[in-house]
């Protein structure tokens, strides 16, 4: 006993609790910290019985370990929550001759920090789960239901719900609803959840939507509590419309449990998107509130993005149907198929789009790629080298008019009509063609000609949506009719030419009709291209503005997170796990590089905004009439659009553009058509220098030539001619080629590389539309110069032509 008292006295000034008890569980000695922790004075402890003084320890790990060490001897160490003192304790027990020596240390602060870290980890895991799911394209209902499931799973909530705002009907529509299996039935059957449609009046959720202000930790009544009407008043006092929350009846078997509501509006650019709400049985920490607020902001962005994606799909369908009409309007088979594969690839954003002809030869079905558009247009060459047995399945699918739809060859679908060997041949064929995903839609003309449109992805897999298949099927049906029309037209034209070979005038008339037809098709294509450019520029501009506007907030959030990390490092400097994680992720580099990354993103967003502005200016859809424009601005916009072809690529250096701009007044012209002329001439100049050695240069000169005999305009502007010269140092052309350079369908490019319409249309625009002059001078081995001369202020009689 003397030894135990001396040992305790030694710790009398220590901050940790120390006491000793004998084999009859009587206190022998205790220090001041033990008396304070146990809530007793030292005098009341000494000679008192442990279990009589502290019955709260009976039946707990404290009793079990005390008795075990007292019986078996030795020492032990454990950590547990103590009802005595309501704190977490680290307990050390040591058996001695007198009895038991007990050492207690209060670690509640550490446990509280660990609990906070755990809660933050759960919150981070929730946000990561939701973010990963929302990255992929899912339906809006599925995405929001997944979010509520994740909220309940990660935060142990009672009920989670998400409402989406319908601006046309001015009501909320619930599209996500999850609950804990132990949630009280009266809550689930309440009026708030009975209908998926919720008005903005007479409900607490409607109040949040109408005011666009969050409600945090409002306490609702205990279910089954006879005083629930009074408890409802607690919430109603803050939000009167909270009375329409639930329609409860008394359930004595259910224990009273109060609910805490945390609800945030989902708002984007002051526009209500919806409301997210969570009911829990315990009050959540403030950082959980902040996490749910951040989740609400993310959901607002993703819901808005889903709406935009749906609208974009609708516009895509409309574009595809317009494309089908344009295809049918053409009577040239090559033009039809070239237009089809090019436009389908552009609209669906696939790596390659091809048209396959299928025919039978002596009971053998053969395939050939006749038209192809893609990043690596070599599918036709690869198919031509494939053994016939490998192509038999594709030919069989086309002859049987069956759609072939493969999202990923690594996980191919099962084809009931195929034997295992045939399916292996198909997969081997796709691997040889380096195709990861394939969508093949066959067609059959009235003359029994077989073909197919094939869209493929080479570098990654792709899910072919039902909407894409339906829309593309409609285009294929229109394409079959267009091919029929082209065949009939070809037959009719052949018959007409055979019958009228002696009629020179009719032949000239047919040539003129052919030229006019080609020009109309080209004009319609350029008009559609301009509309598409303007639409794409508008669609890109919205998300770019949003990204640019949120980068500053992102920077603030990053700074806040960095300060949070620094605080953790300050208060937990010795934590090995945190130190190891810092080394693993190279925290110092991340903190240094993250602001630079955000700055780079800001520069990139500004660059995109400039490109969008140039696209919008280039299309000039709003300038269908003659208007004064800056010619230099049109040249700059054209060069910006062609920048990708001008810049260095691979082993080829960048084409140097030398600008020698003079003082030009505003020129009355059709800006969009004039930009088209600039585009055609500069694109040809780039093509001419494709294989040329350095230096490769394009020189653009502008000059105003005043007319000394013409008076000034009413605004005091001089009259005269605007001259634009575009010169390249390419290979040049011989005189006999220059003499035909503006003839329709005349081209110096290889077959399939040019239509021969670009310069013919340009000549028509300058001469007939602007009453100017377009000339070409070229010297083999030196280069080519195109000179445009148009009046700055055309005469009044020319403006209506």
List the helices and strands and how they pair.
Layout: H1 2-10, E1 17-22, E2 27-30, H2 32-38, H3 42-45, H4 50-53, H5 61-72, E3 75-82, E4 87-95, E5 99-106, H6 108-135, H7 140-155, E6 159-166, E7 171-179, H8 185-188, H9 191-194, E8 197-198, H10 204-211, E9 215-220, H11 228-238, E10 259-268, E11 271-280, H12 286-329, H13 333-348, E12 352-361, E13 364-374, H14 379-384, H15 388-399, E14 404-406, H16 420-432, E15 437-444, E16 450-457, H17 466-499, H18 504-571, H19 576-585, H20 587-619, E17 627-629, H21 631-641, H22 643-646, E18 656-660, E19 667-669, H23 671-688, E20 697-706, E21 720-728, H24 735-738, H25 758-769, E22 773-779, E23 783-791, H26 796-799
Parallel strand pairs: 18-20
Antiparallel strand pairs: 1-2, 1-5, 3-4, 4-5, 6-7, 6-11, 7-8, 9-10, 10-11, 12-13, 12-16, 14-15, 15-16, 17-19, 20-21, 21-23, 22-23
What is this structure, in a nutshell?
With 801 residues, this protein is an alpha+beta fold. It contains 26 helices and 23 strands. The termini are far apart.
Distance between the termini: 120 Å
Give the rounded overall mean pLDDT.
77
Number of helical regions: 26
Q: Helicity, in percent?
A: 40-55%
Regions with pLDDT < 50 over 5+ consecutive residues? 222-256
CATH topology of the largest domain: Beta-Lactamase
What is the alpha-carbon Rg in Å?
40 Å
Going by CATH, the homologous superfamily of the largest domain would be: GAF domain
Q: Taking strands numbered 1, 2, ... along the chain, how are they ordered across the largest sheet?
A: 8-7-6-11-10-9
Shape: elongated
Proportion of beta-strand residues: 15-25%
CATH architecture of the largest domain: 2-Layer Sandwich
Number of beta strands? 23
Category by helix and strand content: alpha+beta
- Tally of individual domains: 5
CATH top level label of the largest domain: Alpha Beta
Largest sheet: 6 strands, antiparallel
